[in-house]
Structures are given as C-alpha cells and as structure tokens.
Amino acid sequence: MCEGEQLLRNAVEGRRVRKPDRTVRLGDVVQNFMTKWVSPRQARFGAVAELWSQLLPAELCRHCEIVDISGGQLKVRVDSPAYKYELQLCSSELLEELQQQCPKARLTEIKFVVS
Fold first, then answer.
1. If you placed Cys at 68, which of 40, 43, 75, 114 could pair as Cys (CB 3.0 to 4.6 Å)?
2. Range of 40's domain?
3. Is 85 domain-assigned?
C-alpha cells in the first residue's frame, strides 16, 4: 500500500466514532439478578415450600411440586389426575394453614395442574 492510501485510510479511521465499551462481566450480571430478584423471592416464598413439604404426607409429596407462586396463587404440578384429586380434597385446609404460617406470601388460591 502506498503512502497516500495509508494517509487516506488513517483519515477515514480517525472520523469513525468509537462506541464506548459496554461489556460487562457475567458474574456481575448474575450477582445483580440474584440480589434484586431471586433473594427477595426466596425470602418471601421459601417458607411456603418448606411448610408445603411438612404438611403433606411423604407419599403425596413425591407426586407433586410447587412450580410458581405469583399473584396470590400457588401453582402445583401433579404427576397424575388421581393425586390431583386427592390434593384438591384437602386444598382448603392446606391453603388455610399456608396463610396462617406464611402471611407474607399472601396466598389466596392453590391451583393444581397435571403434567
């Protein structure tokens, strides 16, 4: 490349607006996510999961799992319609106990889904 071409190339490159480096460390992003979202939810709903496992008989507990808590609704996945029916029979007692023991969760409903 001749000297003129190099000068022209340098002039063009000098005009380019360099964008600031916006890279972030993955660890910082994860830490921020944990601090703002996961820890508060864990503090608020961790007691619900613990109490749930204490309230249910071990056999019934093996066939269901809490999948979501939002908007006052506790969503529980059940592995068969028979266990769903069994849980529905005692759902009002379960909800009452969860409301008394875990008032911060503000639960108003338990929804069971088979999957």
1. 75
2. 26-114
3. yes
Phi first, then psi, for residue 67 (nearest 5°) are -115, -20
Range 50-76 average pLDDT: 92
Q: Is the entire prediction scored with pTM above 0.70?
A: no
- Asked if residue 7 is part of any domain, the answer here is no
Q: Which residues contact 67 (CB under 8 A, 6 or more apart)?
A: 75, 76, 77, 113
Strands 109-114 and 73-78: parallel
Give the Cα separation of 114 and 83 in Å (integer): 9
Contact 47, 101 (CB under 8 A): yes
Whether 45 is in a domain gets the answer yes
What CATH number is associated with residue 82? Answer: 3.30.300
The pair of three-digit structure tokens given for residue 44, joined into one six-digit string: 């608020």
Going edge to edge, which strands form the sheet with 73-78? 64-70, 73-78, 109-114
